[in-house]
Amino acid sequence: MTLSNKDTNITWHEGAVTREERQALLKQKGVTVWMTGLSASGKSTIASILEQMLLHQGKAAYRLDGDNIRFGLNKDPKSLKEKSGYSDEAAKRFGIGFSAEDRGENIRRIGEVAKLFSDAGVIAVTSFISPYIKDRDAVRANNKPGEFIEVYINVSLATAEKRDPKGLYKKARAGEIKGFTGIDDPYEAPVNPEIVVDTENASPEEAAKQILAYLTDKGYLAA
Amino acid sequence: MTLSNKDTNITWHEGAVTREERQALLKQKGVTVWMTGLSASGKSTIASILEQMLLHQGKAAYRLDGDNIRFGLNKDPKSLKEKSGYSDEAAKRFGIGFSAEDRGENIRRIGEVAKLFSDAGVIAVTSFISPYIKDRDAVRANNKPGEFIEVYINVSLATAEKRDPKGLYKKARAGEIKGFTGIDDPYEAPVNPEIVVDTENASPEEAAKQILAYLTDKGYLAA
What we know:
The structure is a homodimer. Chain A is of the alpha/beta class. Chain A has helices spanning about 20-25, 45-55, 65-75, 75-85, 90-95, 100-120, 135-140, 155-165, 170-175, 205-215; strands spanning about 1-5, 10-15, 30-35, 60-65, 125, 150-155, 195-200.
């Protein structure tokens, strides 16, 4: 059933709004821009600048990162218990820790949230190390072609370790952090990513511009 | 550190983009519009029409409902195993079923996702029965004042049961569905919701207009 709106001559329908409808009205295409790379590769900075560039063009964009995911949707068991009043059992069951299985579920949920943003017509920019090909490929497989763009933020371990803005590599080398990607846990570089950003040579702004150019050329910023 | 952009005189910053920045650039305020009400109260239809009305004003809006949540982020254990290749143990642990605990976690995650949309400057419209005051109040408490709007889609059980578009009440009365809200599981009406919609008398379009008027009056559709 459709409902006519006499005031504006717009007709409302009762069924679910489609992705195509949203995109036409927002004049942009939803997509997941999935950044992957070592700690200190520059993912967060590049994602933040890309988000600003998109917003300044009037395009809805949003960055998903550790700060807004790990403290909310993917809380650890302790936080679920203390902040959400969960029983020990429920907190342990639903909370996300740092085992391989937990990391996999963490990435799966992030992929699902990014997909919702993408379905909403928003450009979702994720900045997580996401070191395993298997987890990233599962997210890709959950999206239609063209709705998932893998961006490899490429940097050598030596450079990342030299930058080490949070001192994490130093702690990992000292054995104070276990399972740190690049030190005692592997980073699996993308085999065939849509975009490779070389942060050895490019500044964060240049990297963001490179991704923006891709989005523009491929038509994501138009209906 | 901020980066100046010589082309446009816009300055990019390296830190996280704030909610306020996004809202100013998108010319709207993010918010969670949380609909609650019995099955067949009209939540989904009203949410869909509200979403269309917002999109036609060029406002980013998105509806979260059972269809896009239960088949993605909040999959059941069986789907996690079959579609995501989870082990029995991981599927059981991370999957969402229908126990009271599972329903609570379902609503918590939906609340967190809506909060991300709201943070992104998008108007998130959720349409879930969400029968328990405790669960809804937990979502409210997780948001700042003004960033969560509870909309009670009020309908009598008699009317909802008479509509019964999917035959669910009939099945529940016949004992074919257990724990059905309104029949053998309680619905706890909101005590102090921001909006009450009377769907006994208002059409879905009139109900959507009522909510739209609230959003407009309270300044959500402007920067």
